[in-house]
Amino acid sequence: MYVVRNSFSSCGFHLNSSVMSGSNGAKENSHHKARTSPYPGSEVQRSHVPNEKVAWLVEWKDYNPVEYTAVSVLAGPGWADPQISESTFSPKFNEKDGHVERKSQNGLYEIENGRPRNPAGRTGLVGRGLLGRWGPNHAADPIITRWKRDRSGNKITHPISGKNILQFVAIKRKDCGEWAIPGGMVDPGEKISAALKREFGEEALNSLQKSSAEKRELEEQLQKLFSQEHLVIYKGYVDDPRNTDNAWMETEAVNYHDETGEIMDNLTLEAGDDAGKVKWVDINDKLKLYASHSQFIKLVAEKRDAHWSEDSETDCDGL
Description:
Layout: E1 66-69, H1 71-74, E2 96-97, E3 100-101, E4 111-112, E5 115-116, E6 125-129, E7 135-147, E8 166-173, E9 179-180, E10 184-185, H2 192-204, H3 212-226, E11 230-238, E12 247-258, H4 262-265, E13 275-282, H5 291-303, H6 312-315
Parallel strand pairs: 1-6, 7-12
Antiparallel strand pairs: 2-3, 4-5, 7-8, 7-10, 8-9, 8-13, 11-12
């Protein structure tokens, strides 16, 4: 992960796992953060977009969005596209463009006046803001889990729900002090699976600061964990305050589960890169994470039939 791009998964800017209702509109409640002002890292105010005018299918002749792309993006770092107006730049939208993945997880998006159009609807701002790519900007969120065990190695069940307690690796972000899934941006040409493993190593195991020998040992253990069967918890559009009419965040959240706990027992958690702290956290409905991260964690608990809530109505499947 690169320093400038760390802001790409920074606090309050993350995911809303609402699934969209097609390429031209957004379901209710799926597109709020992408309309907030001021735009992150600036004093730029978006044009106001009322709920009923979010969908592109709704005609709005007087729509007049503000244009904004951050100076850090316009400086032309390796992770960012040039401006659309540059004659040497001819991106292939809706497909793999060299090493850059311009396909969306949500299907085809429309191109208008040479610019991609946000599939969730209007945001009140055009350009790229803080995002490097025109169109989708892809992130990866690895959710690493194990069963909570007592000193004898037995799984611990919750006294009320009667279900086993699941734990996941959480990082505390330096930039805002909130606990989160250790994720980040996918590099050009990088497979999602590789990005998930790299991000976890960098943020939860401090792999960037290890010696060559330590890195080899780390890689061996991580390979065991990441080569197991896994659950794709969510993939698609992310409601994010950095989104614009022409650039938006997407993620793939994947659960890798260490059933016996033996793999993670051989790995020492150590915060690295943009993580301030890292620890195992018990999964339950009282977790205070990014709103969407909590939704992902809840889905993991459901898929693994683990404890989530003390409310018998929501945790016992109607029994």
